[in-house]
Amino acid sequence: MLKTLKTDFQIIFDRDPAARNWLEVLVCYPGLQAILLHRFAHWLFVLGLPFFPRLISHVSRFLTGIEIHPGATLGQGVFIDHGMGIVIGETAIVGDFSLIYQGVTLGGTGKETGKRHPTVGDNVVIGAGAKVLGNILLGSNVRVGAGSVVLRDVPSDCTIVGVPGRIVYRGGAKVDPLDHARLPDSEAQAIRYLVDRIESLEQEVEQLRQSSPNVPTHESDTTDCCHLRDKAIEQFLDGTTVSKNG
């Protein structure tokens, strides 16, 4: 237990550049306070003591804005950054050295009994406002983008973004856990591919038309039907060139 508490304390200095001294961390970091109170409440919960574990959890919620059910299991070195609005359900399991930002929910769905909350692997980063719901598994080294809603299992070593969450693999590249803003935009990538493909097909059609002058030309063919240079598309793709040939 002492080793776990020491790891909980040390991980803050490893991951938060704003942490300057032990007194500031101990007094002014609600994430650490919530975890310390939870570990005591969880110990009482495992002993089967009624009422008091929930009371400690309720007091912790009042003091820190972080609600962790005493039945939840947290590994060593879990870091809750800021933490306001975090909810972790009764049967949730969080692996070692995971990083959880403010507004995250590890919740259940419906009124099922038994294991009904997520299991989170080691070294997982869950971005601000993300919701992970149901008895699902997030593998180790998973990164959940801010605001994502995860409703199904996620394999290890990948990133999930969007509502509902979509899995985007990172090719095994190691990323700083604090750099949770560097997430791939899968929608923009898909649209960029489709736009490039449409332009390529239009060029092929134009070449076929020029090589066969007898092919009638319809009035609609003379317009840029896909509007590939529309301002809306360019803004969606961050104003970059949407065609390899453009």
Describe what you observe in this structure:
This protein has helices at 2-15, 22-28, 30-47, 52-64, 186-211, 231-236, and strands at residues 67-68, 73-74, 79-80, 87-88, 93-94, 99-100, 105-107, 119-120, 125-126, 131-133, 137-138, 143-144, 149-150, 158-161, 166-169. By secondary structure, the chain is of the alpha/beta class. It is elongated. 28% of the residues are buried.
Tell the overall outline.
elongated
- The H/E string reads HHHHEEEEEEEEEEEEEEEHH
State which percent range the strand residues make up. Answer: 5-15%
Derived structural class: alpha/beta
Helical segment tally?
6
Low-confidence parts lasting 5 or more residues at pLDDT below 50? 240-246
Average residue pLDDT: 81
- Main sheet summary: 6 strands, mixed
Summarize the structure.
Helices cover 34% and strands 15% of the residues. It is an alpha/beta fold.
Topology (elements, then pairings):
Blueprint: H1 2-15, H2 22-28, H3 30-47, H4 52-64, E1 67-68, E2 73-74, E3 79-80, E4 87-88, E5 93-94, E6 99-100, E7 105-107, E8 119-120, E9 125-126, E10 131-133, E11 137-138, E12 143-144, E13 149-150, E14 158-161, E15 166-169, H5 186-211, H6 231-236
Parallel strand pairs: 1-4, 2-5, 3-6, 4-7, 5-8, 6-9, 7-10, 8-11, 9-12, 10-13, 12-14
Antiparallel strand pairs: 14-15
